[in-house]
Automatic annotation (TrEMBL):
An example molecular function term from Gene Ontology annotations: serine-type peptidase activity
Protein species of origin: Cecembia rubra
Any coiled-coil regions, as ranges: none
UniProt xrefs under InterPro entries: ClpP/crotonase-like_dom_sf, Tail-specific_protease
Name under which the protein is recorded: Peptidase S41-like protein
Residue ranges of every copy of the Tail specific protease domain listed in the record: 262-503
Keyword terms: Signal
Source superkingdom: Bacteria
One cellular component (GO) term of this entry: outer membrane-bounded periplasmic space
Gene Ontology biological process terms, A to Z: proteolysis; signal transduction
Signal peptide segment: 1-20
Pfam short name (any one): Peptidase_S41
Length: 523
């Protein structure tokens, strides 16, 4: 399998970026090469996925892959392209959490002096421009000679409208030219993105962010969508697509009553910074949630955050012993410094994060300090005495669970009858999930899957389950590099592919309406 991956990377690197760029002189210092060496060294020392992907059986293949990237960087004189090679390197390790991004330039659109500096900057001045003739473009797209991928596209938030047209050189096969822009930072005629065809309806995409940072990703044309771009006028299931406009303004947490039997709880983040907000919402609606037989929990688009926000849902989902895999920290000197920095930040805002979170991180630091360099250690202490009590709060009620260690680095949580009985309602829970549900949100899905009164509905989750606990790392060129520090050995099978729902949604289905139908089924 790794050989196939290496061959694909060879194809991507040589087909795209070795065609005509002048080779950098040996006397010149290439900033991208220095950045690449930094990234490579940091990942090899500190990434928990490195040893899972590079070992004695494929070490030579890995070194060949690195050499290909190194030579491609030497041949490429376009500074903006540096991020492409860095992203390709990180992709080798199959960790969705670890990413490196070019955030572009800093500019304040409301400050004219800032805008003047931006308009005179090399990034703005050097961005490719194409003379546009909208009548000519329209005539070509309706001539019958255009390809399926060509057409007029709009960004998902409605900010940009582009014409995607075929234009070949050694780097690309298509370019997206701006026709309309709702921001002054981009103007009609500028090339917003470029595509290189890999296969039928599969492309390498080179997309420029609002602030001119370059993003590299593989995208596919699926019905009317090309990544986050939407093809206008395309027919989808017999209906002409209409632009969705801007979907901003949603609350992070929301509760409402749908009918006399059903409540609806939306959780759009598990970010630890917003723990108090989620707790407050649950407190405010505790009686209603615990007195309605049906509950819809919507975690679509929830990119994850902190497992501390899952605590209220253990008593809500519980029907039998819950099994959880312990994450493992990759103990290195650099990762130790990362967690020590985290601890200082938590202490600086202790009222928000709480004493329990601070003590948890202090224990993790001690475990890393006591471990050998490059050793995996459990992020959470196994139960030393055999049984440990853990309290989970839903609203104003505390529920005590007993934790015991199981096999395969798992721990079991069991509820034993006590003064505070587990909630008898809701009797049935439907969880709405999609590809935007990632990381901690996927832990939430795994929790729901163990409940006899819950059913998941929607699409596969995002596939961020093999590795986690991401922290930012400063790079020489100032790119935004975020890297995992932990792994889940057993749950790595869900990395990239995601966790499937119990009931899969079909296109154009009314998700709330379908949820109400599911309540009529036996779970």
């Amino acid at each position: 399998m790794k050989t196939k991956v290496l061959l694909l990377f060879k194809l991507l690197i040589f087909n795209n970026l070795s065609f005509s760029f002048p080779l950098i002189s040996s006397n010149e210092v290439c900033p991208c090469l220095e950045e690449f060496e930094f990234l490579k060294g940091y990942v090899e020392r500190n990434h928990p996925a490195f040893g899972d992907n590079v070992n004695e059986t494929n070490r030579v293949e890995y070194e060949e892959f690195v050499d290909l990237l190194f030579k491609a960087i030497q041949r490429d004189s376009i500074n903006d392209h540096c991020i492409i090679y860095l992203k390709k390197y990180l992709a080798y390790f199959k960790d969705n959490h670890s990413q490196i991004n070019d955030m572009g330039v800093q500019v304040d659109e409301n400050d004219e002096e800032s805008m003047k500096r931006f308009f005179s900057s090399s990034r703005f001045q050097q961005r490719e421009r194409i003379p546009i003739d909208t009548e000519e473009i329209d005539a070509y797209l309706h001539s019958g000679n255009s390809e399926l991928v060509e057409g007029i596209y709009e960004s998902q938030d409605g900010t940009y409208k582009v014409a995607l047209l075929r234009n070949q050189n050694g780097f690309r096969d298509y370019y997206g030219i701006i026709l309309e822009s709702q921001t002054r930072l981009w103007e009609p005629g500028q090339v917003k993105f470029e595509l290189k065809k890999l296969d039928e309806n599969l492309f390498e995409g080179f997309f420029y962010y609002k602030f001119y940072g370059l993003n590299y990703e593989t995208v596919s044309l699926e019905e009317n969508r090309l990544g986050t771009w939407i093809k206008l006028g395309a027919s989808q299931n017999g209906q002409t697509f209409i632009s969705p406009g801007n979907g901003q303004g949603q609350q992070l947490f929301e509760y409402k009553k749908i009918d006399e039997q059903t409540g609806y709880l939306a959780i759009r983040t598990f970010d630890g910074y917003f723990k108090n907000e989620l707790d407050s919402l649950i407190n405010a609606h505790e009686n209603e949630i615990l007195n309605l037989p049906h509950l819809i929990i919507d975690v679509r688009g929830n990119g994850g955050g902190s497992d501390a926000l899952l605590a209220p849902f253990y008593p809500l989902f519980y029907t039998d012993t819950l099994k959880n895999e312990l994450p493992q920290i990759y103990a290195t000197q650099d990762n130790l410094i990362t967690y020590q920095d985290l601890l200082q930040n938590l202490k600086a805002d202790s009222l928000r994060y709480g004493r329990a979170t601070i003590e948890h991180v202090e224990k993790m630091i001690l475990k890393i300090q006591n471990a050998g360099e490059g050793e995996f250690v459990n992020m959470i202490d196994p139960v030393v005495s055999g049984i440990e009590e853990i309290s989970f709060r839903f609203g104003t009620k505390d529920f005590i669970f007993k934790s015991t260690m199981g096999i395969n680095n798992r721990y079991n949580l069991t509820y034993h009858p006590q003064k505070e009985l587990l909630p008898s309602m809701p009797e049935k829970i439907v969880v709405l999930m999609d590809r935007g549900c990632a990381s901690t949100c996927e832990n939430f899905i795994l929790l729901a899957h163990q409940s006899k009164k819950a059913i998941t509905y929607g699409d596969n989750s995002g596939g961020y389950k093999g590795y986690g606990n991401v922290f930012s790392v400063k790079t020489p060129l100032g790119y935004n590099f975020k890297m995992s520090t932990t792994r889940y050995e057993q749950q790595a099978k869900f990395e990239f592919v995601g966790i499937p729902p119990k009931v899969r949604a079909v296109p154009n289905e009314d998700w709330i309406g379908k949820s109400l139908e599911l309540f009529e089924l036996e779970f």
